[in-house]
Amino acid sequence: MPTYTLKSLREKLLLEWTYNSNAIEGNTLTLNETKVVLESITVGGKTMREHLEVINHRDAIMYAEKIVKNRETLSEWQIKNIHRLVLKEINDEYAGVYRDQQVFISGAEHTPPAPLFIQEQMEQLIKWHEHEAEELHPITRGAILHAIFVGIHPFIDGNGYVSRLLLNLELMKEGFPPVVIKVENRLTYYKALDKAHTQKAYHDFIQLVATEAEDSLDLYLKAVN
């Protein structure tokens, strides 16, 4: 495809990815307001945190793109770096640091592990990614990675952002465009995740990711046609 077409598609997906990921977490900036913030303009009546969530998410995407370009393998160090970018100037004390407190996920049956077990479970996640996950389709692998990670909930804040970044990191490594989990699908998204955590049943969540992946691929197919 022409260079400008690819550039505009990337910008469109980056904007929609950032807007929807933030909106899922409760950010009140609209799509157009998010675009304005990405252009380094402040929006009146919105909090500093909401502005930082947009800028930080953009920076985290750029870091993920660098990982893809350099063909780096997934590591705890990378995950902590992504989280550090997500929480930069929002909560520097806990940015890139595993939590030292018990947390609960609002509205979910699943309870994340106690802080004592986080390191072990994160190491197991990386081992799974390096071995069993290699045999899986990229969409399945990315979806399960997202689900397991957010189930561990290793950080005090920002786990949802990081999990969606990890999902897309897996897909982008395999040549897929990033998927956008849309805010209007938030309830379905949370239900599928809770089912994955409580029943180890990943089908619903994988199907949700696959549907969103088709939407992203359709954008590129329309551009080609």
TrEMBL record:
Residues 74-211 form the Fido domain. It comes from the Bacteria. One of its GO terms (molecular function) is ATP binding. The record marks 25 as: Important for autoinhibition of adenylyltransferase activity. ATP binds at residues 157-164, 189-190. Keywords: ATP-binding, Nucleotide-binding. The active site is at 153. PROSITE patterns: FIDO. This is Fic family protein. It comes from Lentibacillus salicampi.
